[in-house]
Amino acid sequence: MAGLIVAIAAVLLAALFVALSLKIVPQQQVGVVERLGKYNRLLTPGINLLIPVIDYVRVYHDLRIQQANVPPQTVITKDNVQVQIDTIIFYQVVAPDQATYGISDYVNGVRNITTATLRQIIGKMELDETLSGREKISTEIRLALDEATEKWGVRIERVEVLDIRPPADIQEAMDKQMKAERNKRAMVLAAEAAKQDMILRAEGDKQSKILKAEGDKEARIREAEGLRQAQELEALGRAKAIEAVAEAEKTRVELLRTAGLDEKVLAYRSFEALGEIAKGPANKVFLPVRAVEALGGVGAIGELFKAEPERK
Fold it and tell me: Does the structure show a pLDDT above 60 at 303?
C-alpha cells in the first residue's frame, strides 16, 4: 500500500514538473524569462522548456499594435483660452526586454509624455491655430514620443487628436461668427451671380447686334455683287449685240464689194436710203457738210444709173 502511494506521488510530481517545464506561447506574443532573478531569454510563440523553480516568466508582451487613450486634457492656448483635447496613441513593442526593464510602465509613460508635450505645443498656439492645426499637433507629439520611447523598446505608430473643444461661450460666439460668415458668402455669391447674369445678358445683346450688323453687311455686299454682275452681263450683251451688228455690216459690205460695187456706188445707195427715210412727214434728215460736198459726185452717179435703163 505504501509503495502504491509513493508511485502515485512520483507520478504527480513528474506531471507537475512537466507542467512547470512546458510553456506554450500564443502567436504574436513573447515572454521574458528570468533565471534566478536575472534576465535570461525570450519565450517565442510555440512550446518552450523551462527549469522549474529556477526559471521564471516575468511578463508577457503582445507584439501587435496597441492603442492607448489619453484622458482629456485641459490646456491653455497662447491667447489664454482653455481648450479640452482628446488624443489616442497607437504603439508597438519592438524590444520586449527593454520594455520590461527600461521603464516600469511604458503605457503610463507614453500618456504622461503626451500630456506634457501637448501643454507645451498648445501654449505656443492661438485658439484659431489650435482648432485648425490637428495635423501639426499630432506630428509634434509623435516626434516627442519617438525620442523618449526609443529607449523603452516601444515604437509610436501614430498619434491622433480626436477632439478639440473650446469653452461653451467661445463655441457659441464661433458659431455665430461662422453663421454670419456663411450669410456673407451667400450674399457675395448672390451678388456675383447677378453680376454675371448682367454681363452675360449684355454680352448676348452685343453679340446679337454684331451678328445682325454682319448679316446686313453681308446682304448689302451680296446685293451690290448681284447688281455688278447684272451690269456686267448687260454690258456684255450690248457688246455682243454691237459686235453682231458690226459683223453683219461687214459681211454686207464684203458682199457688195464682191458684186463689183465701188465706194461711190455704195454712197449713192446710202443717200437713196436716206431719201426714202426723209419722205415721211415727221422725219427730218441732217447731213454733214462733207456729205453735201460729196453730193456732186453722187449726182453724176445717179445720172449714170438713170442712163443705164435707156441703153438697155
Answer: no
